[in-house]
Design brief:
Layout: H1 6-29, H2 39-64, H3 73-105, H4 116-139
Helix pairs in contact: 1-3, 2-3, 2-4, 3-4
Length: 158
């Protein structure tokens, strides 16, 4: 699996910002109240980031050679996939939360609106989730093997 590209993360964040902005404009234009993220959203984002770091620890220990127990390869693969999905989801939600913050700040009441702090906390939670995903993804990276050091193999052998 390829590492997550920073360009892809930026593109997904921009897409999230566009989606968040259009959603907010559509809600307000339709006469509905503006979107305010619930406290459970940003709470769950922080909990997911912490849980992802806990799941990635055994894989990190295995890669570094300090593992006390064997790690199931399917577990390691699932942790890697979860890390990649978390980084992409975090980028999408950072963009959407940034659009909501900009929407809130550009209104007449600005920071005094009740949606400002939930928007900011959602953005921070999404950023923490995305960074945790990138960290765990780097933990799951296996260092390249030096084929010259393996007995019975030459450098040219594949």
């Amino acid at each position: 699996m390829k590492r997550t590209s920073p360009l892809a993360l930026v593109g997904i964040a921009v897409a999230g910002a566009v989606i968040g902005w259009l959603l907010q404009v559509g809600l307000v234009a339709g006469g509905s109240p503006s979107l305010i993220p619930p406290a459970t959203l940003y709470s769950v984002l922080f909990i997911l980031a912490f849980g992802l770091l806990l799941l990635g620890r055994p894989v990190r220990r295995l890669v570094r050679g300090t593992a006390r127990r064997r790690v199931d390869p399917f577990f390691a693969m699932r942790v890697l996939v979860l890390a990649k999905a978390s980084s992409l989801t975090g980028a999408l939600l950072v963009g959407a939360a940034a659009a909501l913050v900009v929407w809130t700040v550009t209104r007449v009441t600005g920071v005094a609106t009740p949606g400002f702090w939930p928007d900011v906390l959602t953005g921070v939670g999404a950023l923490v989730l995305g960074v945790a995903g990138l960290i765990v993804e780097s933990w799951c990276r296996i260092p390249p093997e030096d084929r010259a050091e393996q007995p019975g193999r030459s450098v040219e052998t594949r």
